[in-house]
Design brief:
By secondary structure, this protein is α/β, with parallel strands linked by helices. It has 11 helices and 9 strands.
């Protein structure tokens, strides 16, 4: 049962193969919280690690307020584990932290003091004056972290938006179904979608001594996908238009590469053009479905692909037709045919975007008429 106690706190710890760190983490949390708050709990949400964490948590729960939730799901995801923790937490004031001992539990009382009952979010920051990083953190990890931080600058204004150590009051959050994170950066998701004022306190970031980091190439790709989602959320239609143009530019490169590849192999230019068009159209459909309009309702792929290709053919007709009209009817464009070509491309792209947005990837399913 959820208790609304402003002075109590739930510490949500998402885990995957972190059984070796749990006892030390809980011991430090006990020392940090026992005299600082009147009531607290540690809610461990595990992604079905199978590493013996159940036995470790059960032993700790005999003397301390430790709960374990095993999240069995098709996709392991730290952010989804945090969302589950936010849902199940006993108290409204919540601290989220990693299990690998990189985040100092001793800073939680200060974070809670800063949070108070305000509509805000408090981060434990690695990049404020007074903060520090473990000396084992190599230059490559530091540069990756800083680059990832730079990419968030148009979205949030804080020193360490990548921090996974934060405090928030659940009462100020929207329905959790409105949050759509991928990967590790649930804090960034909350900052952008919930539009909470953010304050930061400096921390010492300790590198893990037990277990292995979960950061890999897949997580880096997930971060870029997540960032793309947040840009589209923050900037709305202008963001989708930029995304649509970027996808289309990639499609043009695919189109040219396949066309000239088949021409190099000796294929007739008409056949090569036919193959390259369908390939590029399929490329554009897939990336727009999974990036530009990823938040829109999903339709059956085959039918949606056919609609997209049909819209692309209409866009090509607008492109070609406007070029012919401009060069045949206006002397200026007849003398500046490259400019007319770009005008045709712009109009064709606008037509493609409108068709995609309104017809291929509409916001809502059309209501069926009552029979």
């Amino acid at each position: 049962m959820i208790e609304k106690n402003a002075s109590a706190v739930s510490v949500v710890v998402p885990t995957f193969r972190e059984a070796g760190n749990l006892e030390a983490l809980v011991s430090r949390l006990d020392l940090a919280l026992s005299e600082a708050v009147p009531a607290w709990e540690i809610l461990v949400v595990d992604d079905d690690s199978g590493d013996g964490i159940e036995e470790v948590a059960a032993k700790l729960a005999e003397s301390l307020p430790v709960r374990l939730e095993i999240r069995s799901a098709p996709r392991r995801d730290l952010s989804l584990s945090v969302l589950r923790g936010l849902e199940l937490a006993k108290y409204d004031r919540i601290v989220v932290m990693d299990a690998d001992l990189s985040h100092p539990p001793e800073m939680i009382p200060e974070m809670l003091s800063r949070l108070g009952d305000q509509k805000s979010m408090v981060l434990g920051s690695r990049y404020l004056p007074g903060s520090s990083l473990d000396e084992k953190w190599g230059a490559d990890r530091f540069l990756q972290s800083r680059l990832a931080t730079i990419l968030t600058k148009p979205l949030v204004k804080c020193a360490d938006p990548m921090s996974g150590f934060f405090a928030v009051d659940r009462r100020w959050l929207p329905e959790l179904s409105a949050l759509r994170p991928i990967g590790f950066k649930i804090g960034l998701e909350i900052m952008v979608r919930c539009d909470l004022p953010v304050s930061e306190i400096p921390i010492h970031f300790q590198d893990r001594s037990v277990g292995r980091s979960k950061m890999n190439a897949r997580q880096q790709i997930n971060y870029l996908r997540h960032l793309w989602r947040l840009y589209l959320f923050r900037f709305g239609r202008p963001g989708r238009i930029v995304s649509f143009v970027m996808v289309g530019t990639g499609g043009l490169i695919v189109d040219l590469a396949i066309f000239w590849g088949f021409r190099w192999l000796g294929l007739d230019h008409r056949v090569a053009r036919l193959i390259s068009f369908w390939s590029a159209a399929s490329w554009n459909w897939w990336f727009n479905r999974n990036l530009t309009f990823e938040a829109r309702p999903k339709r059956r792929p085959g039918r949606q692909w056919a609609k997209f290709v049909g819209g692309s053919l209409l866009g090509f007709a607008v492109n070609y037709g406007s070029y012919i009209a401009l060069t045949e009817m206006i002397e200026f464009f007849y003398r500046n045919q490259t400019l007319a070509l770009f005008c045709g491309v712009a109009l064709g792209t606008a037509s493609n975007y409108l068709m995609a947005s309104l017809f291929v990837f509409p916001k809502l399913e059309r209501r069926r008429r009552n029979s």
